[in-house]
Amino acid sequence: MSLPGKAASKPRGRQPFYRDLSFQVLAGMALGVAVGYWFPKLGINLQPVGDAFIRVIQMLIGPIIFCTVCSGIAGVRDFKKVGRVAIKALFYFEVVTSLALVIGLVVINVLKPGVGMNVDMSTVHSSAVDAYVAKAHHVVTTSEFLLNVIPHTAISAFAGGDVLQVLFFSVLFAFGLAAIGERARPAMDLIDSVSSALFWIIGLTMKVAPLAAFGAIAFTVSKFGFGTLISLGKLILEFYLTCALFIVLILWPIAKVNGFSLLRLMRYIGAELLLVIGTSSSETVFPQLIDKLERLGCEKSVVGLVFPTAYTFNHDGTCLYFAAAAVFLAQATNTPMTWHDQLVLLAVLLLTSKGAAGVSGAAIAVLAATLAASNTIPVESIALILGIHKALSSAFVFTNIVGNSVATIVVANWEKALNRTALRNELKAGFKPMDTSIGALKQSGGSSAGS
């Protein structure tokens, strides 16, 4: 006897390589590079293509977090489990991001890409830096950050797109549903239906992801060109190497200890990783990764809590960026910095980064604001890396996504909320998209009604 809804979840058969989303995104990026290089005027005008895709995804993130958290927590009705998962997740985040800082510091001090540049700050135009400092002006104290977790109204959390505020409201609402028991059943059925509709929209939107990657890359190459990349190539190569070392030395052993292959996980989320390289935005893959992590066997309640929180607290790649950029600027401007000075500065950056979540250009904004407050490295020196920030952000957003995916699986494993059979089978087979066509959905509805 078939299970209800089985028709909708039946995976498609093996498809030609050119229909694979990862290949399409990669092809879009390659075409974007060509257009940006040979037709720069056209490339500049393609910026809205990438921006439109990002905005559609941003529009859906709040409702998806709400539906996922409510369905997960209210479904298990275990308040103690929520607190336990949160504590384990935060412990993991702080340990791993601290390790990221250590690796970032060691590599930048060993390779010294900025030594010998001898930049004269009087020749550096710093007007562009002021905008980034202004973006982070509200990230001042820990108390302000904690107070900002609570939205002024439930609607303002969704309207502002603040992931942490949406998560805060969602957890409270889920507790309320769990507390009233069976009376919450109609609301839970509605939330599940809304969630299915939202993920259908995501599936439809992802069909234009290659076009979004094409537009974003074409704009980047047109605006900055290859000259900027070559002139600061040492820093780019050093940072890419640092990200690779972090993945190999930290994330790979963590995955190994927890019984899954990091390489297979990266292949499983390959389309999302390529997409964040093209768009330099982690938000573009948020809903898709929630769905994939649940398919990998992580309980919905754990995914709903850990993954959104990781977007605020687990900035592995961003911490690597802070280490590389701050010390590089000190080296380039001949600013003396002892190991003690570097550790103090980066400890401050590790804290202030938590308050910058959801701010456009958050990484460079926090870096600029912190350097201005520390009064050690000339804040104007950030102008040196503005031209290559896009190249650097692609790498650290990529690392953030891998780190957040690993963190969710690890915490689920610690919590014994991981279906290891599903994890093993999914990673071995690779991701196969569900049939989300209208016909399949109608067939599913008919099957369910007749069961």
From TrEMBL:
Parts of the chain that traverse the membrane: 21-40, 52-77, 89-111, 154-177, 197-219, 239-257, 343-371, 391-414
Membrane topology classification: Multi-pass membrane protein
Biological process annotations from GO: L-aspartate transmembrane transport
Keyword Metal-binding applies: no
Pfam families: SDF
Keywords: Cell membrane, Membrane, Symport, Transmembrane, Transmembrane helix, Transport
A molecular function (GO) term: fumarate transmembrane transporter activity
Domain of life of the native organism: Bacteria
Subcellular location(s) of the protein: Cell membrane
NCBIfam families: PRK01663.1
Name listed for the protein in its UniProt record: C4-dicarboxylate transporter DctA
